[in-house]
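Quick one, tokens below:
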């Protein structure tokens, strides 16, 4: 499916999971460390799964706001999206990831919140990129 690209960004990593990553414009730079659970030393660096969780949660919150405007609702200012990303071996070989999103929309009726989340899931670029490839759980809390 073609995408009418409105924005592009570029980032590079060196050293793999125990290196660094930074955006081309220098606005973001992070030291990376492999978690102990994946055979690394752990430490104070971030890992790609944490970066994916941060990006997905921020993007999904943005999609909630777009969905709210379409549904003539409001996203409460204290709304939060918490993404938990898992990684592990796939039965088919290689590795795969999972994502679970916990969405808090205080003050909204449950049915309205669930409709908003379902609509956002069709809008969010991360949701569209993962659909059919990554198990994504959505929980309204």
């Amino acid at each position: 499916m073609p995408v009418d690209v409105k924005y592009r960004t570029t980032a590079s990593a060196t050293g793999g999971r125990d290196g660094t990553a930074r955006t081309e414009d220098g606005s973001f730079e992070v030291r990376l460390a492999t978690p102990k659970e994946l055979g690394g030393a752990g430490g104070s660096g971030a890992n790609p799964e944490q970066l994916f969780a941060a990006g997905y949660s921020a993007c999904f919150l943005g999609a909630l706001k777009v969905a709210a405007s379409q549904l003539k609702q409001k996203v409460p200012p204290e709304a939060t999206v918490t993404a938990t990303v898992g990684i592990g071996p796939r039965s088919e070989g290689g590795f795969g990831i999972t994502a679970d999103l916990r969405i808090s929309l205080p003050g909204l009726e449950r049915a309205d919140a669930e409709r908003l989340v379902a609509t956002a899931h069709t809008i969010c670029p991360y949701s569209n990129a993962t659909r059919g490839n990554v198990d994504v759980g959505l929980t309204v809390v």
